[in-house]
Amino acid sequence: MKTKLSAFILLFFVSVVSVNAQLDRSVQPKPGPEPTISLEVPSEFELKNGLKVLVVENHKLPRVSYSLRIDNNPITTGTKAGVESLLGSMLGNGTTSISKDDFNDEIDFLGANLNFNFSGGSARALSKYSERVLQLMADAAINPLLTEEEFNKEKEKLIEGLKTEEKSIDAIGDRVSNALLYGTKHPYGEFVTEETVNNVTFGDALAFYEKYFNPNNAYLVIIGDVDLSTIRKQVKKYFGDWEKSVDVSTTIPPVSPNAQYTQINFVDLPNASQSSIAIENSIDLKMNDDDYHASIIANSILGGGGEGYLFKNLREDKGYTYGAYSRINANRYGAGSFSATAKVRNMVTDSAVVEALKEINRIKTEPVDPQMLKDTKAKYVGNFIMGLEDPETVARYALNIKLNNLPKNFYTTYLQKINAVTADDVKRVANKYIKPENARVVIVGKGSEVLENLEKTGIPIKYYDKYANPTEKPEYGSEIPDGVTVKSVMTNYLKASGVTDKMSNLKSVMTQYEATTPMGAVVSEEKRVDGKTVQNIYMGGNKMMSMVMTKESATANKQPLPESMSNDMKANAGLFMEINLVDSDAAKVTGVEKVNGKDAYVIEVPGEVVSFVLYYDVETGLKVKEVQNTTMQGQTQSQEAILKDYKDYNGLKFPETRDASMMGQSVVFKLKEVKINEGVTDADFD
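Above: the chain sequence. Below: its structure as tokens.
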């Protein structure tokens, strides 16, 4: 028996080898048939109040999704910009008959998901709970719980959010780019500020809801495990009493004209550790245009992902950035756009602009490689098909056909049109919609480090502030007075802060700062005269991070830091950084800049991974600002703090407030505790 079994296994093995030997692996397998798209055609009906309902039955899974779209024209809110955001944040948090807590608790109990904004909402639920979720959705839309107390809370949160964006190159870049591209009078170009939010009253939010949140131009798309006749009755039952409003059609102002010539629109952000770049021009492209599918492929080749021209050049070849991308945006109101974006290190800002423009001109002048065109289309087709597994995608496609006046077979023929795009098509649409000769290159960055090289590109530069207002070229740094050195600045600080007088008896210092945010993060720092420092970060009473620095090494959560990073951190070890810098050969005075309206000496402390920029008030000698930049893998993160409200603690002065900016977020820390020569033990550094 054993012999027979062994012979059978041997025979099977030989047959497998024989079959494989006959395969010619040098020949690429033939592709399968081109996939076809078969989207369910929605059933449609309309309520007397104007609500249009699209229903797609899909019984594969026991779930239902609802998507409500209030399809008003884009709205300009002017001096009350932000009213729509405030309204949207209040919607979906209870109804006039159900409290906010009870409403949210029931949604959670049902395992459902429900979200609202000022232009509609969405919900998902298991089919057995779908009617109740539809009822809750309708009640929240028609009878929202809008209270002045909730309005004031949301207003405060919105203003706090705007404050966190004051030093964010992303937020500033988006705001200025849109304002210059569309114009501040256009709905896409206006922006929200603390001033406009403060102009909004609770009555304004109520009036906005009454005027614009109505069924006149509304669509409800329902996809999932439903029966048409049943869902029709349910929609009529729950949405039938939603009253129409007056005609709310608005006139949309024209988009600002493109630039007459290629130009850099520069916004100076003195604390920026990297530059935000956006090359953009407006276009008139709609989804029902013949060029639409070719524009998708052209954009994918230029900057649609990791295989795009921009990404390959700026990241893989040059190492300027983590990523560089582009977008061609179609818009049914004639407000489309092209943009190419990247965030890069300060020192390569000019080079990144030159290289990005080179790649943009490349797609306009050079035929795309046939293999790249083929691969790009194949990848797009694959992603498109995968997206059809999401009911939200199917709902969006069904609605797109209605909103964009598309033919009913738009998506069933979609892949055929994508695959029909030729190299000539790519070149043609690139020349039609990508206009570097009329583009604005919007850059937000540190002018003192990038402007000199940007000027060498020969591209004209115009200057703007953080709110897109034209301004003059910034002036950088007053001349350094004779006799001002790193040693003199450090000595003045140590004297002004009381360290000089206390140094002979100073053994250790412990400080704790607590964030004023709801999370209440606490930063504790313990420093000793022997050169040891530990920084701990606590959240909710739990230690989240611990960094120990000595004159020999540095660790984070007991793990050694890379040698280069560890060497850089030594500058901050010991009682006070300034003691280490008094006789430093590496640190240098680079100028005089304004901090909170007063002159401050700028001291730069270089590092391979971690560098510091320190600011000392010319008049008082105290440190008024510090910036820590960490650069790894071509990307820089910056942590900044404004130091103010100094207070005396047993002869030593410490800032009561640290107004910090970390990874684009603004956090205010208040001094909670100071201990001098107590509360610090050897165990703290283990």
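The two ends are 68 Å apart (CA to CA).
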